[in-house]
Amino acid sequence: MKIKSIITAALALLVSTSCSGGTKQEKVMTKDGKALVVFFSHAGDNYAVGNIKVGNTKIVADYLTELTGAEQFEIITHKYDGMAYNTLIELAKKEAKDGELPAYEGDVDLSPYDTVFIGGPVWWGTYPQVMFTFFKKHTNDLKGKTIIPFTTHEGSGLAHCVEDVKAAFPGANVQKGFSIYGHKVRTEKAKVEKWIKTLNP
After folding, report:
1. What is the pLDDT of residues 12-59, one digit of tens each?
2. Three-class SS state of 163
3. pTM score, whole prediction
4. All residues at 6 or more sequence positions from 82 whose CB lies less than 8 Å from its CB, including other chains
5. How many domains does the chain have?
6. Residue 46 belongs to a domain with what CATH number?
7. Which domain holds residue 38?
């Protein structure tokens, strides 16, 4: 399914639900196309928001699922659990410098999906290295498919994330990315919805 069709269906559903007074959120995907949100989200000690139970990127991923019906695959590693923020960023810096590819739990078959949102925080100018582990494993799995990057950040915007996704997935249709401040994700769902409406097929 084309992005435009996904968005149109999502908006139609939201309007219909609002008018009918219904509260149940239904998925808008059909057998003709599916979307997936692949993301890494860091809970615990985070810059600007302190110690949080749910990572900033997870909140955006949940918005995307609610608004488009996309399924989710969360890239999970316990390497950073319980780590103070300053310790974490120093480790992240070393991982990026060394090109380390930390392991993650489980995996996902990307073949059923036409559109894949890829999201994470910005650590040292790009996604966390554990996401590159996922990219390397699936580098040939998204040819001809649409990829939509997004980031949560505290001043870095998209940094090099879009360029790195393009390099990781040659042959994919990588669209313009979206970024949102991590400390604002809990109050700016409307910004995510506005972005969804601007996506091109």
Report:
1. 443 333 333 333 333 333 345 699 999 999 999 988 898 998 999 999
2. helix
3. 0.83
4. 44
5. 1
6. 3.40.50.360
7. 3-198
